[in-house]
Amino acid sequence: MHTQQENLLQVTFRLSKNTLYDLFSQVLHDLDGRVLQVDGMKLTLSLGDKDQLSIQGVGQKLSYIVPVRFQFVKPAGLFSIEGTGEIAIHLSTMLHISEDMDVSPKTELVGYHWSVAPSIQLGTMDVPVESLADCMIRHLSASWIHTMDEELSKQLHLQELISQSIAQYAHNKLIHSQPDLFVNVCVFQILANSMMDTTDEILLDLWLELGVKVSDKEIPFGVQQKSRFYWVNTGITSPTQQIELEYSYEGLAELLADYLNGLDIGGKKVELSGVSLGYQQQLEIKLDMIA
Question: How far is CA 64 from CA 11, 29, 56, 58, 199, in A?
C-alpha cells in the first residue's frame, strides 16, 4: 500500500506506437513462410500489412490486432485446389507490475475476425473456414503469447532503467557554474494512473516521489534505494516538489568573498584577505579585511 505524499513530481511517459510496431516485427519475424497442415491442406502463413496492425493502451492493458495472411493448397488427384485469405488475431496484454517494479506481462487471445474471407483461386471445394481459423489461432496464439510476454519482460527492466537514468543524468549533474552547483536525485516511489491512447502514442501519467539535493560539492555515488511502484485509480492534484539545498562552509565563504570583495560601503571598497564560517550554537562569520 502506497502512502500519499505531497512531495511529488508529475511527468507523462510517452511510448511511441512505432516502437511497439518494431517490437512486434521482432517477435513475428519468423512468421513468414511458416507451414501448417489442416484437413489435408497445406497452409502457408505470412504477416499482413503493417498498416493493418493496431495497438491500443487503455487502463493497465495493451490490446493488439495482428493481421495474418495465408495461402492454402489441397492436392486433388493430378491437380490442386488453391486459395487465400487474411485473418486478424485479437490479443491483449495485462501489465502486472509489482511494488518492486518486476514486470510480469500476461498476454491472452481475445478473438479474431476475417479481414479477407478464405476464397478459392484455383479449383472448386467447400472451404472449412472454422477449421482454418481454429488451426491458425491455436498455433499462433501458443507461439506468440509466450514470445510476446518474454520479449516485453526483457524490454521493461524498470528498476534497472531508473538506476541507469539517475547515474547518467541525475548524479552530480552540474547545473550552475561560478559557483558550482550539483544536483543529485533518488526515486522513492512511482505512482501510475491508467494508460491513455492517441493516434501515434500511448500516454501514462506518473507521479514520482523524489529526493532532490542541490549542493556545492560532488556527492559519492552510493547504492540507490529501490524504487516502489503502485497503480492508482485517480490522479493526484497539485503535486509539488521540494528540494534540499546543502552548502558547505567553504562554499559559503567563497560565495561571501566573491560578493563582498569590491563592494562599495560608505565610499570605500571592501577588500578581504579571507572569510571563514563556523557553527556552534549559531552561525559565526569571520571576515579578514585589508586595511
Answer: 26, 17, 7, 11, 14
